[in-house]
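Hello,

I think I submitted the NAP job twice by accident. Can you confirm which output corresponds to this input? Input:
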Amino acid sequence: MSIFLTGGTGYLGGYVITELLARTDARLAVMTRAKNLDHAREKLWKSLQLHLDAADFFAALERIDIVPGDLHAPGLGLPDDVRAKVVRECDSVLHIAASLNRKSSKACFNTNLRGTLSVVKLAREIADAHELRRFSYVSTVAVAGQRDNEVVHEDEAVDWARSDYDPYGRTKKFTEHMVAELLPDISRVVFRPSIVMGDSRHERTTQWDMVRATVALADLPVVPLDQTTRLDIVPADFVGEAIARIHVKERPDHGIYHLSAGVRAITAGDIATAMEPVLGRRMRFVKHLDGATDLAFRAMNRLPRGNALQPIGALMKVFWPYVVYNTVFDNDRITKEIGRMPEPFTTYCGPLYRFAKGCSFRFPYRDYPEAP
Ligand SMILES: NC(=O)c1ccc[n+]([C@@H]2O[C@H](COP(=O)([O-])OP(=O)(O)OC[C@H]3O[C@@H](n4cnc5c(N)ncnc54)[C@H](OP(=O)(O)O)[C@@H]3O)[C@@H](O)[C@H]2O)c1
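Support: Only one job matched these inputs. Its output is below.
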């Protein structure tokens, strides 16, 4: 079994690769955007060092075929012989790569739509040559568009009459549709993670946007949010395990899974309680400031670069709607199928806060190790 995988150099890709290596004996054909093979290995080391030491990394490389490719290039930029090998040897596709740039229609359009179309065409070619066991697509709960105080179930999330918050949600929504329309005869699975933040087993992370936003909020003298607001935050270790296990399962129970905290999602007030010993004070909240808060974040975003408030404004401008909409995504399907719940954010937010501030939101990456 060989799995063609995109996005392996990304945050979630590192989790998924690690889980697949540990749980299966599959080979992985990892499409990597890089200048050459050495550069591709360096990028993989960067994403996998959160999980593997040098010895395990070199052992992992024995099972990984690096496929040089770019979602933006015609035909994924795969040389003919490489494409022929992928078509011959891969029996499933796990498409994780995406642009998460919520501010850029161009990036989302090119990567999420045009890029996924190229991945689908490759999948079609595999299916025409021999059995394609599965096409899995990592989407997002952002496909549910604008919401207000809701519990969203998998089959109700995509509603074409609804507006979206940003080009990211919009393009991921259409991509789900495109995959279903163009691969109707293939066993397909769509995974929709909610807000992925941190790892419930340790304090380390390499993905900072949401962590930065959370730390900034925790440090405010008053948080402009109702403390009963539910926040659907899920740890990356749960998401990685779920994707790997369902992707290789012979017959998954469903075609779409929310990888989320669901109705057990914690509230802003729960975070305040968990953070009290770390902050040495209780976070304070003030209600009904939503419009004014939005304006304040926009104004901060317009400050000159170099101003300490500018990056917080830039982040909050795009993430704030996903905080205040007080909406969670039912996770009964995945928790039943893999037999476990995601750890609540409150069990690990304190160590994550300390780690993030301790390294100034920069993971202490280790250089590429000496080959054994
Ligand atoms: N993290 C979250 O909170 C979250 C929540 C919900 C859903 N998701 C979904 O999960 C998936 C992975 O997200 P992530 O957090 O791991 O993102 P990430 O860390 O930004 O990783 C993105 C991956 O996509 C690859 N990629 C981007 N543009 C590419 C291109 N033109 N050609 C080839 N590869 C390209 C990147 O490769 P390079 O290394 O070359 O840039 C990287 O491997 C995405 O589909 C996202 O929508 C994430």
